[in-house]
Structures are given as C-alpha cells and as structure tokens.
Amino acid sequence: MSKHTPGPWVIHPTFAQIDAGPIINGKLTPVCKMLWPTDLRSEEETMVNAELIASLPELVKQNAQMLEALEEFCARVDAGEVRSKRTYAKFKGLIRAAKGEA
To answer: Please, which residues have CB within 8 angstroms of residue 93's CB and are 6 or more apart in sequence?
Structure first.
C-alpha cells in the first residue's frame, strides 16, 4: 500500500475540505475537497462523510494493528498452541483479503 498524507486529518472549519495537521507556516495541508450539500445530499450527510474521511489515518493504523494481532494468532494455531480451526480459517481469509491476496 502506498503512503498516505500523515494524520491527524481534520475538517476545515470554513472550507469544505479535509486538512492534514500539524499546522505549517500557519496553514494546514489540504488533503481533499468535499462536495457542498445539494438536493441529493444534505449538509448532515456531507458532514458525516467528512468525519469518515478525516478518521481514515487512524482507521488505517488500527487496521494494521488488527492484522498484526490476527497474524500472531494464526501463527500460534500453526504452532499448535491454539486449536480454534474455524476462527483460524476465518482470520486467515481476512488477512489475505486485507493484504489484497484473496
């Protein structure tokens, strides 16, 4: 996976955009622009979308931690330390899918 703009990402208080911190030379770094609300998308939906986008760096970090824990669990099953074959098979599939191997 390529590197993304480091977080934290925040919703700009004035413009319809997501910015990355920290502030450099008094400015945040723009990450993406949001579409303004329309008759097809309310202001509330636009804000929820912005919040979701702004949370992505943290979600990526948490996903990497989850994958590491799942890989450790699967290694323990492979070593015979854990015997949950059904959960093991599910986790192995999730790991492959998350890595784009499925």
So the answer is: 102
Domain spans of the chain? 9-54, 60-98
Residue spans of beta strands (DSSP E) within 27-93: 27-33
Q: What is the pTM of this model?
A: 0.66
CA pair distance 93, 10, nearest whole angstrom: 33
Burial-class residue 87 by CB neighbours within 10 Å (0-12, 13-18, 19+): middle
pLDDT digits (tens, 9 = 90+) for 4-27: 888 889 988 888 889 997 777 778
- In this structure, what token pair is assigned to residue 55? 């949370």
